[in-house]
Specification:
By secondary structure, the protein is an alpha+beta fold. About 20% of the residues lie in helices and about 25% in strands.
Length: about 290
């Protein structure tokens, strides 16, 4: 699921990553005949991330290998690879649930999801508390569409950029909201109070994505297409798939001393958010 909302990038070193969001110049000012051009204000917003090494190994004794008549040991490498991909899934999912549901703190000092005005330092205005419904989904789409693009992180420029002008494409939900989300985005007719009418959401770009790690049955989120407005990045060093190694020759230390072969998995990953504007979260208030 995460491959649809995140952008994957390869890196050649394990150095700290600086994911820089370059600001826009906004509207071009007019230049009178014979007058000099004025400099344009433009800045950036650097978000940093560090690679983390994940892994472990499965010990396989000589006796275990010799008794394996069903050849089930062949499944272990596949399971190690799947565990690596599940790790990426949990890291991306945690972006939306960390710190009691407001996400990590960004370089502008604001939590990823907050209600502060975008004209203030660290203000993102991308957090609401309403339950999932067709009108609320439209309200969230409108909020993301109107998000001002970055010009410069400086007084007088916060929230002054032109509108992002992109609707969220993906509606992220826990399993408990999957059917409700599909009823909003997919059917040709919607049923409200036993009155059937044309679903005005039909035909609008939108896809429901169920996030397996989300346990809260009410909270949901919206994400723009990363091709148009990337926000979440997954960095890999030696490949998006984890590396699988085996120490199994007679001179390997564990084999030599304990008759123990070792199947090891290693994965270097960095996951970070580069821009809050394409993301929106609804932490639904408890009734």
């Amino acid at each position: 699921w995460w491959t649809r909302i995140a952008r994957v990038e390869h890196f050649n070193t394990l150095n700290t990553i600086t994911g820089t969001l370059i600001g826009t110049v906004g509207d071009l000012p007019s230049v009178a005949e014979g007058e000099a051009y004025n400099p344009l204000s433009i800045g950036d917003s650097p978000e940093s991330a560090d690679f983390v090494k994940y892994g472990g190994y499965i010990p396989l004794t000589l006796e275990l290998i010799d008794r394996d008549e069903s050849r089930k040991l062949a499944a272990y490498p596949r399971e190690l690879a799947a565990a690596g991909l599940r790790k990426i899934s949990s890291l991306v999912a945690a972006i939306f649930t960390a710190n009691a549901g407001v996400g990590p703190t960004l370089a502008d000092s604001g939590a990823l999801f907050n209600t502060s005005a975008v004209t203030s330092v660290g203000g993102h205005a991308n957090l609401r508390t309403n339950a999932l419904s067709a009108p609320e989904w439209d309200a969230v789409q409108s909020a993301v569409y109107k998000q001002p693009m970055l010009i410069k992180n400086a007084s007088g420029y916060y929230g002054s950029g032109p509108a992002l002008a992109i609707n969220p494409r993906f509606l992220l939900v826990p399993r408990a909201l999957q059917l409700s989300a599909m009823k909003i985005l997919y059917p040709s007719l919607e049923n409200a109070a036993n009155i059937y009418s044309e679903n005005m959401q039909r035909g609008q770009p939108g896809d429901v994505i169920t996030v397996p790690e989300w346990s809260d049955p009410s909270n949901w989120a919206a994400v723009c297409d990363p091709v148009l407005a990337p926000a979440i990045f997954v960095g890999e060093r030696f490949g998006l798939l984890p590396e699988i190694f085996i120490a199994g020759d007679d001179l390997s230390p564990a084999v030599f001393t304990n008759d123990e072969h070792r199947l090891k998995v290693r994965h270097f990953l960095a996951v970070w958010v580069n821009d809050f504007r394409p993301l929106h979260k609804n932490n639904v208030a408890e009734e």
